[in-house]
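re: ur question from earlier - yeah i can do the single chain one, its not a big deal. heres the input i used so u can compare w yours
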Amino acid sequence: MHKRRFNLPPLDLIQGFEAAARNLSFTKAAEELFTTTSGFASLWLIPRLRGFTALQPEVDVRISATYKTINLERSLVDVAVRYCAPEEAPEGATRLFGEELFPVCSPTLLDGSPRPLRRLKDLEHHVLLHMDGAFGFLDWGTWLAAQGCPDLKPAASLRFDGYERMIGAALSGQGVGMGIGRLVSGLMEEGRLAAPFSKSLVGQRAYYVIRSTLTGTRPHVQAFVYWLDGEAKAVVLGQGRLNSPPPAATSAAARPRARSAR
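and the output i got, formated as tokens:
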């Protein structure tokens, strides 16, 4: 049987995130997002998907975009990854990771002339990058107030309607954006982004995995949830990627597909 490979839409069109592995999907609702569906997808999940497909090559994986609020059971969605406050997480949800927030910028701004970025006060000479609809510490006003600099006025401001676009502007040296630690960690490890200050804050929201009550116990669903949880824990513990699936994933790999991904 021919094995279908996953197809990725243009990343600049991703407004939300949905991934399907043999009808396995990950979605976020607009009211739960403001940042990250697309940021979570393009910055955290997509760079890691190769690890899952290597473990489960027989599982079809689909990446698409949506801001719709969906009912998992009615929409035949097996798994959802949602960004929300703990009290908003559905019963039985698995927490992947929270949000550590700190400014990030291109390394060229740190020592660039004529205005190197070394202290919070130096932000007065730089452009601050904002997200439309940002809240809490992702909002620069709130973050600066928490640092004791509520009246700081930047040289200019730029606003974006998506987290990955805001981070893209930071990568190109256009200004300083607010980084969500787990989403920008890969770019920082590569030396493409830098944190100019040692100060960070922990936000109240986190990323949660929920499963359909109808299909959440199926082997391929369990395998993906196990893989997601392992990827999140690997970052926390500073470990490498998981290189062996759980028993449920092994049995799933041997099962013939009952239907192809839509």
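The CA atoms of residues 16 and 66 lie 5 Å apart. not sure if urs matches, ping me
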